[in-house]
Amino acid sequence: AIIVYRLPWTWKCSKLLMKFIHAGLNTIAMILAIVSMVAVFEFHNASNIPNMYSLHSWIGLTAVIFYSLQLFLGFAVFLLPFAPVPLREALMPIHVYSGLTIFATVIATALMGITEKLIFSLKNPAYSTSPPEATFVNCLGLLLVIFGALILWMASRPHWKRPPEENAKLLRPIGGTPEGTEEESTVTDGSNTDKSDLRINSETARKNLKLDEAGQRSTM
């Protein structure tokens, strides 16, 4: 769901379609998270295991709560056509940052969970003796870290960013920003404008400095 906008073969699809795919994948993930949490609590209650005592459970429940809030606000602000464009532009950096933070938190929760399970389950042979089960799960943890690093790398690289749509200027309302390009147009146009202004100002300063030096020399 995070990299659905970052895949080059999806750039030919409309931004609205990609929004629905992004929201749909996140909804499926939220449903699976709720099912897994219900299964964990039922297993603990059936086995007389205390609930919410470990750091793994604290961080995991926190991630699910913030993920549900992220999903709700994403639907309300970015998918439904009622939120004004300035509000979307203001919330887009927060939405992106919180999504990446929740993703990294989920990876950390999974690593803590599989380690906790190994310590409690492997008694004979013990986890410290590195049995095949421990080696297998440790390799799974390394794959999770590599997977998380790749996703975060793709989500943070500018050249993986979805380019603005070709018909963005035709769809732009008077004084507004085209739908589906709030973040792209703001970042791209703003940076280009700032760079051009800096070049003009620097060139003007150099010309003025040369004129001042020439005037001083002629006076001397």
From TrEMBL:
Residues 1-156 form the Cytochrome b561 domain. Its cofactor is heme b. It catalyses: monodehydro-L-ascorbate radical(out) + L-ascorbate(in) = monodehydro-L-ascorbate radical(in) + L-ascorbate(out); Cu(2+)(out) + L-ascorbate(in) = Cu(+)(out) + monodehydro-L-ascorbate radical(in) + H(+); Fe(3+)(out) + L-ascorbate(in) = monodehydro-L-ascorbate radical(in) + Fe(2+)(out) + H(+). The chain crosses the membrane at residues 20-41, 61-82, 94-114, 134-155. InterPro entries: CYB561/CYBRD1-like, Cyt_b561/ferric_Rdtase_TM. SMART domains: B561. Its EC number is 7.2.1.3. Residues 168-220 are annotated as: Disordered. The keyword Translocase applies. Residues 192-220 have a biased composition (Basic and acidic residues). PROSITE patterns: CYTOCHROME_B561. PANTHER family: CYTOCHROME B561-RELATED, PLASMA MEMBRANE ASCORBATE-DEPENDENT REDUCTASE CYBRD1. Homodimer. This is Plasma membrane ascorbate-dependent reductase CYBRD1. It comes from Syrrhaptes paradoxus (Pallas's sandgrouse).
